[in-house]
Write a structure and sequence with these properties.
three-stranded antiparallel beta sheet; alpha+beta; 6 helices
Length: 138
């Protein structure tokens, strides 16, 4: 977690943060594999079902690294880096799980599908909000 007046970096890893959720996710994965085998009688299809479910939960299993500065936000997970310019967003909201960047100046019903949610803990959320206040108040 690096901090400077111009940028802030943090890491989020939900699997490591919550052992109970991790146990529940592995239980669901095992159940999916068992049910897939039960319905298809094929180990291959069972493997495919578990693989697809695991792939869809990659943000839970792999750590996500965030870097935000006054111009852009970078999100790195495994081998992929996503860079979004902050000029694309009009406002932000902080909630219990992180910070939501909205591309609409007024709240809309479909806001959650047009914005970007940055997962963050309580300490990180406050620092991100402070940095974004300087960006969006200009």
């Amino acid at each position: 977690m690096a901090e400077d007046g111009n940028f802030y970096c943090w890491k989020v890893h939900p699997m490591a943060a919550s052992p109970y959720k991790t146990g529940l996710v592995f239980l669901v994965l095992a159940s999916c594999g068992i049910l897939a085998y039960d319905f298809t009688s094929s180990y291959f299809m069972s493997f495919i079902a578990v693989s697809l479910l695991t792939g869809s939960l990659i943000q839970f299993f792999a750590p996500t690294y965030y870097r935000i500065d006054r111009e852009k936000v970078e999100i790195k997970i495994l081998f992929k880096t996503r860079t979004e310019p902050l000029s694309k967003y009009k406002k932000f909201f902080a909630d219990n799980n992180g910070v939501f960047l909205s591309s609409e100046p007024d709240s809309k019903v479909l806001d959650q599908f047009r914005g970007l949610f940055l997962l963050a803990g309580p300490g990180d959320r406050d620092k991100i909000s402070a940095l974004l206040k300087g960006v969006f108040e200009k």
